[in-house]
Amino acid sequence: MAAQQGTPSSALRVLEEALGTGLSAAGDTAEAVAAEGAYYLEQVTITEASEDDYEYEEIPDDNYSIPEGEEDLAKAVQMVQEQATDTQILEQKTVFSPKHTVPEAIEDFLCNFLIKMGMTRTLDCFQSEWYELIQKGVTELRDGGIVPDVYTQNMLLENENKILKKDLKHYKQAADKAREDLLKTQKERDFHRMHHKRIVQEKNKLINDLKRLKLHYASYEPAIRVLHEKHHALLKQKMLTSLERDRAIGQISGLKETLKHMEIRHSYHAPEFRVVPTYEKENAPEGPTQKGLREAREQSKCKAKTKVNTKDSEFPTHMQPNPNLGLGKENLCPAKFDYKLNNIFRLHELPVSCIIMHPHKDLLVSCGEDRVWKMVGLPKGNVLLTGLGHTDWLSNCCFHPSGNKLATSSGDTTVKLWDLSKGNCILTFEGHTHAVWSCTWHSCGDFVASSSLDTTSKIWDVNSERCRYTLYGHTDSVNSIEFFPYSNTLLTGSADKSLSIWDARTGKCEQSLYGHMHSINDATFTPRGHIIASCDACGVTKLWDFRKLLPMVSIDVGPSPGNEVTFDSSGRVLAQASGNGVIHLLDLKSGQIHKLLGHESEAHTVIFSPDGETLFSGGSDGTVRTWS
What we know:
Protein name: Sperm-associated antigen 16 protein isoform X1
Mean pLDDT: 80
Largest sheet: 4 strands, antiparallel
Oligomer: single chain
Region (Disordered): 282-323
WD repeats: 387-428, 429-470, 471-512, 513-547, 596-628
Number of strands: 28
Shape: elongated
Organism: Odocoileus virginianus (White-tailed deer)
Keywords: Coiled coil, Repeat, WD repeat
Helix content: 25-40%
Low-confidence stretches: 1-41, 59-70, 93-102, 268-284, 304-309
Structural class: alpha+beta
Distance between the termini: 132 Å
Radius of gyration: 58 Å
Strand order of the largest sheet: 1-28-27-26
Strand content: 25-35%
């Protein structure tokens, strides 16, 4: 019993020595181990045999069949019973006894522990001393004992605990990050929610303001209608008053002639009139006839002085007949619509604002926002003349009826006249307070009219070099102006959505045309003068009967703005330059609309050649394009 009790104690002592206390003993037994030889654990690799070298045993065929001719009922029944028995045996499940897990021995545990911890020297000492004791018979393998299950489970639980702690740390970090993202998202949500509420409030406020403005605007419409009616009534009254004034002036002229004859006949009474005291003349009652005579004398004196001191031109009273009146009957050839892009002239660095054709030669003048106008020869497009002098962009230009002069309007508030034989500026008209949009020559060549952003138009006398009349009536920018062919009538188009017809001799508005819903950008006459065409900022083009002063037709090619309209020489084709770069051609006979596509950007201006075979257009890219 004593020997049996000492065996486990020796095993525990060996375990303690292996864990650290036996390191000193390893040095004492080093010589004995060297003498008897040492034992080591050696790693051996066992290779599997190749399947190619293995010989398989042939399996006999179990499908026995009864030879033909030896059939017997007893044997057949016996064979069926044997097959059923074999099937039952195969269907039975073989139950194996559970495999018991062999606990790990202490020496194996220690070796595995030292290998795991990388303590190779301690492992060598433990193996040498352990197997030395086994060889001497001091201890046996079966007496070494096994590692208790509780200890093994504790180690497994510790490993799992370490893994779980590591995972917990990772999860905490992920949770912290998620919490930060959540807080950030909540803040952004609150900010966007507050911003959305503010936008909704501003939207509701704008809706209320819009409703209030609509009501306010609706309240003004009746008043505006009444004012228009009053305006027309006043115009009629003004015309009647002017007629009465002319009649009174005629009567005064007759009385004046009668007075002259009376003075000649009774000239000897003149001294008596001269000696009348002044206080008696002042206090003497003055009748309507004497008052009219006195005013007539004063007006005649003023007119005499004006004729002596100025060189004002007179508006022609007998205009030559319009040579274009017979074009509709003589020109029976079909109108042309199949224009193709033929050439591109790059003349300006900034957008082209206007192009016009010379009345008698194959010359073209273009104006640009680069403050320069250029005259080019056709069809090559070589620059013949360049005009410099304006200090701001050029808006429009117009040839003198003879073709030897040019008028240009500019954003610098001036209108300049140029002598094309010398290429220099000969006259500058100043008087507008804002940019000048358009200019036009009278057919007699003595007057130039201009329209401006300052809501006025002016008629300039070329000979006296002064403004003869300023045309008031529009309430917004006057964007276009043009003389009726061979007449003293002017046509203006304004941003106040109206067209006005003026008498250039008196500077008075004779008629206004309403119908556009947006700002009018351009208006023009047909060569015969019986139709007016106008276009507005939303692409609507309207045709008006000038004789009846009524609208004829409305064509909507918007929403891009119509920048300019022009007729061909026959008056049967109307071209419109559109803000989307398209040139629209309207057949006035059939009502069909044709499109010319070629501009890469906005088209500002368009003009036909005199024969109608070529069309020229200018765009915002600084080019003039030729279509033929």
